[in-house]
């Protein structure tokens, strides 16, 4: 029998400085990783995905797509997730063709642009990494969340390019006897990791929203 627990993202995957609102991930300095204790569960990369959504200023020209999680482990102790980490391959980033409606643009062109030094510089920084630092209970009836029914607050160190910051966001977690599932949806500020188009403060960078919505669907099985 499965139980929903106050325990355990992400991805993976990628941008907003937080405040009291849980729509935006609270962003702080890097913290110490949670101690590795309990039973290990291997992340099923075929059943796990990271989704992203970004827009131009004012919400115009929304783009969305996915990025692959390529490795990871969660640890469960006393019915709750105690620690964990996962890796995201930025070279696997794809843009959904349905989000590119302009006749003179292709989703594959945007893929290349996002992987270029203009944004993620995936050739030199191919992996993004998330390491859990803490997991606490969350009451979705009392706090606002992009994810209805969130059960937990996850905090972890997110590394993008050569920068690591700690983010905290709501997640919905279910721990079973042989598997763990987790879902999350939150917003980060790409510029906190130094991800700017052209230069910080340039008109080109200003025209793109700093906020990037990240979602993930994660599944792990007992090793």
Task: Give a description of the structure.
By secondary structure, this protein is mainly beta. The chain has a single domain (3-222), classed as Lipid/polyisoprenoid-binding, YceI-like (Lipocalin, Beta Barrel). It is built from two helices and eleven strands; from the N terminus they run ββββββαββββαβ. The chain has helices spanning 107-115, 203-206; strands at residues 3-4, 26-29, 39-43, 49-56, 63-77, 80-95, 127-137, 152-160, 163-175, 179-189, 208-222. Strands 1, 2, 3, 4, 5, 6, 7, 8, 9, 10 and 11 form an eleven-stranded antiparallel sheet that branches. A hairpin with a 6-residue loop joins β4 and β5 (63-77). It is globular. The two termini are 19 Å apart. The model is unreliable at 1-22 (pLDDT under 50).
Write the layout of secondary structure elements.
Blueprint: E1 3-4, E2 26-29, E3 39-43, E4 49-56, E5 63-77, E6 80-95, H1 107-115, E7 127-137, E8 152-160, E9 163-175, E10 179-189, H2 203-206, E11 208-222
Antiparallel strand pairs: 1-9, 2-9, 3-5, 3-11, 4-5, 4-11, 5-6, 6-7, 7-8, 8-9, 9-10, 10-11
Mind telling me the CATH superfamily name? Lipid/polyisoprenoid-binding, YceI-like
User: Which regions have little confidence, pLDDT < 50, spanning 5+ residues?
Assistant: 1-22
N→C terminal distance: 19 Å
Task: Please give the CATH architecture.
Answer: Beta Barrel
Estimate nothing, just give the exact number of structural domains.
Answer: 1
Report mean pLDDT, rounded to a whole number: 87
CATH top level is: Mainly Beta
Oligomer: single chain
- Helix proportion: under 10%
Q: Tell me the strand percentage band.
A: over 45%
* Sheet with the most strands, sense and barrel status: 11 strands, antiparallel
Q: Over all CA atoms, what is the radius of gyration?
A: 17 Å
Order of helices and strands: EEEEEEHEEEEHE
Counting DSSP E segments of at least 2 residues, the number of strands comes to 11
Number of helices: 2
CATH fold-level topology: Lipocalin
Please identify the structural class as seen in this structure.
Answer: mainly beta
Shape: globular
